[in-house]
């Protein structure tokens, strides 16, 4: 008993190290990440124009107004179309490219680099170039389509075509990332599977269909969720691509982040804009939940098999 | 069988090459436009080869806007961000990997959970906080959100757990090395590879940042390359050819980094994806 009492708690050198090392980082982190995230929820419950002292608590009213507001609903619809549009093109194309590359080709790393390049280049310059490529008068894209007998189209002026354009640009930009992740997954598939399958007569497309796709399922889910989350946050390319005739940026295709920024920084509806951010958060949360759920399901069935 | 194999490999090459050409066309078009004259733009059918390779458009960028300032702002923002993120991630990652303390696991779980929250979701309160500190429209406010990265902490923790055995640290302690000495002399040198991977990743993220500069920067002297270019393109007085020259110049640094560190970058991105 006496010895225990003597062992009073004292800070040892490694305690000091943890304390001194971690405190500033956690402080910065709390200030720059944690507090703003929590505050988003808090502000969304108020009606506040940023300037006035008066800041009435309105509960969930901002959310009620949101779902009755045309601009928001349009933005939600457009963003959803864009996110899923990117998903259904970017993920399968990336998978096919990764698969073809994995089957062996000369200069493989150069092919990889070329496919990957758009992903790391900044968005604004490439969007500027795409804007010019998609130009209705002298655009390269309309010129290319003319060889297939397709008449020129106002890609960036027509609201529907503008959405298609945004999807095209973003697919082009994200294929490389998705391809790399699939490549990692493909190298994880043991050659034995393919060998065993070829004995059973499954080669080429059949092997791809019955071995590659099922084994890549967790990676496909991960890539799809990441693609959707990024898709829901689409903004920069729209800011550049979809300006209307008067040049007001991002007006042809209204998306969530654009609507949010407009409400916050042009109309100073901070509460309302934060409510939009909360909706965006819920979308991300649901998507992440789906991914984690599917991953866990896979683990569980794996464990069951071991038993 | 071999014939079939050869055929399939030819098809593979054709498909991948067509794809690669499509991927690279926008870059070629950007470069080609940067060398053209405004009258050449109206030539139909469009041509990829400009009549001459004069640098007039590139020089015109500097006449139109203080492009060197944009470059400098992007460069220092990305560099400071990369250095800060690598250092904070290494230190915090090391502590979470090798020290047990009250609340450590919970703290780490919170860090990890917030990693999935996209920037767009909390940028409004962040803006208001910066406003309170009077950090809008200055460089400190511009760079502040890019000083920490939750993913970086997670990434370094994983690497340290896998690569640095406890025995090595214990041995150093027995010899009387201080904790900071162990961190700087043993942990940091052993983490060179993940540190550079994270550094490149962070540099590119900050260089490509757009929304935050758009929100907080009003003064044109503080524009980054991305912001400057976006503002530049909505101004009608500027020729598309000059605009393209600006685009080429803003892509160039990333392109050079990519050419030299190609394998390294692809590896680091695949590391970040395959958690």
TrEMBL record, chain A:
Gene3D superfamilies in UniProt: MetI-like
Cellular location(s): Cell membrane
GO cellular component, one term: plasma membrane
UniProtKB keywords: Cell membrane, Membrane, Transmembrane, Transmembrane helix, Transport
Example of a GO biological process term: transmembrane transport
Membrane topology: Multi-pass membrane protein
Transmembrane stretches, start-end: 16-35, 81-101, 113-134, 215-235, 277-295
Keyword NAD: no
Keyword NAD listed: no
Domain called ABC transmembrane type-1: residue spans: 76-291
Family indicated by similarity: Belongs to the binding-protein-dependent transport system permease family.
Name recorded for this polypeptide: Sugar ABC transporter permease
Organism annotation: Paenibacillus pinisoli
Upper lineage: Bacteria, Bacillati, Bacillota, Bacilli, Bacillales
Automatic annotation (TrEMBL), chain B:
Transmembrane segments: 12-31, 77-97, 104-127, 139-156, 235-261
Protein name: Carbohydrate ABC transporter permease
Gene Ontology CC annotations of this record: plasma membrane
PANTHER family named among the record's database cross-references: ABC TRANSPORTER PERMEASE PROTEIN MG189-RELATED, ABC TRANSPORTER PERMEASE PROTEIN MG189-RELATED-RELATED
Domain ABC transmembrane type-1 span(s) in chain numbering: 71-261
Assigned keywords, A-Z: Cell membrane, Membrane, Transmembrane, Transmembrane helix, Transport
Broad class of the protein's primary localization: membrane
InterPro entries, alphabetized: MetI-like (IPR000515), MetI-like_sf (IPR035906)
UniProt subcellular location: Cell membrane
Similarity remark: Belongs to the binding-protein-dependent transport system permease family.
Membrane topology summary: Multi-pass membrane protein
Any one of the GO BP annotations: transmembrane transport
Biological source species: Paenibacillus pinisoli
Keyword Membrane found: yes
Pfam families for the chain: BPD_transp_1
